[in-house]
Design brief:
single chain; 267 residues; alpha/beta; elongated; binds NADP nicotinamide-adenine-dinucleotide phosphate
């Protein structure tokens, strides 16, 4: 069987380099092209120090698409991501999006182009399988347990709060229901901030301290019992590789945009 041909935009970056090594090691996949402005003209294996990885690096998406990839992986920056994705679709490739920061409107436009081209786009905010499963398990718990709160933890120099993962979880749980508050926030005594922020029907708290990497708890409480689902990320990009490989293998079965890795997983 012929290998699936892949082009990775951002192949020299933190996330893209780990994925490129994963693709190189996978027997059914072939990394035919890479994009990076600063390393254009070089061979990816020389940049990543991987022997035998002879993939050429291109500066632009139009040059990279000449390698005829079946699948284009977008792992760069939000300011260029949509242009890359639309170009890849128009060039006949399916697209896996790891880059964060595209809006619902962006995905609406991408969906139209993808459907017109008969191609699939799988956009995944977090490829880590353990994070994907936490979200899925939390959705199930929210169907049975009406009270929950979300706590996200990160290092002290992380500027955004709450984390993208906490926001995504709140959004997904809001499709199940809003978490129940036994005492409404404006009837609480003391500073309201001590109860965190109400986002899409969940109370969300953000802790920013040295010593933490990235983790998240969602706590479901019932009388005399609790369920605590906790996700912890390490410091490497390794956790994102297996989920991205799963997305690469599934995206060819899609037409139009799908969001979230669990949309192509069986439960
Ligand atoms: N979905 C997930 O699970 C997941 C996991 C990790 C990260 N991410 C997201 O993935 C994206 C990349 O993160 P990262 O940490 O890997 O970033 P990074 O280390 O800064 O790498 C960015 C890569 O994109 C290339 N690039 C940047 N701007 C470009 C442009 N205008 N044209 C062409 N290439 C460009 C860079 O090469 P040059 O600078 O040489 O062009 C580099 O190869 C971010 O949006 C991040 O939030 C998602």
């Amino acid at each position: 069987m012929s290998k699936i041909r892949i082009c990775v935009a951002g192949a020299t970056g933190w996330a893209g380099s780990a994925l490129s090594k994963g693709i190189f090691e996978a027997p059914d996949l072939e990394l035919v092209g890479a994009i990076s402005r600063s390393q254009a003209g070089k061979v990816l294996g020389d940049v990543l120090d991987v022997q035998g990885l002879n993939t050429p690096i291109f500066r632009t998406v139009s040059e990279a698409l000449k390698t005829n990839p079946d699948i284009f992986v977008e792992y760069t920056k939000p300011d260029i991501a949509k242009f890359h994705i639309l170009s890849a679709l128009r060039g006949g490739a399916h697209v896996v999006v790891g880059t964060s920061g595209l809006s619902d409107d962006d995905y609406g436009e991408i969906d139209e182009v993808a459907k017109g081209a008969g191609r699939g786009v799988l956009a995944v905010g977090n490829f880590a399988l353990t994070a994907v499963l936490l979200q899925k398990f939390a959705e199930i718990a929210a169907r049975y347990i009406p009270h929950w709160e979300i706590i996200d933890y990160a290092h002290s120099d992380k500027r955004d709060a709450p984390s993208g993962t906490a926001l995504q979880l709140a959004s997904r749980l809001s499709r199940v229901r809003e978490s129940q508050l036994d005492i409404p926030l404006d009837e609480m005594q003391g500073p309201k901030e001590s109860r965190g922020v109400r986002l899409q029907g969940s109370q969300v708290h953000s802790v920013r301290l040295p010593g933490y990497v990235i983790s998240l708890d969602v706590i479901f409480g019932m009388p005399d019992q609790k369920l605590i689902l906790r996700h912890e990320s390490g410091t490497s990009a390794e956790p994102y590789v297996s989920g991205a490989l799963l997305a690469i293998r599934k995206v060819r079965t899609l037409v139009g945009v799908r969001r979230g890795l669990d949309s192509v997983m069986e439960f």
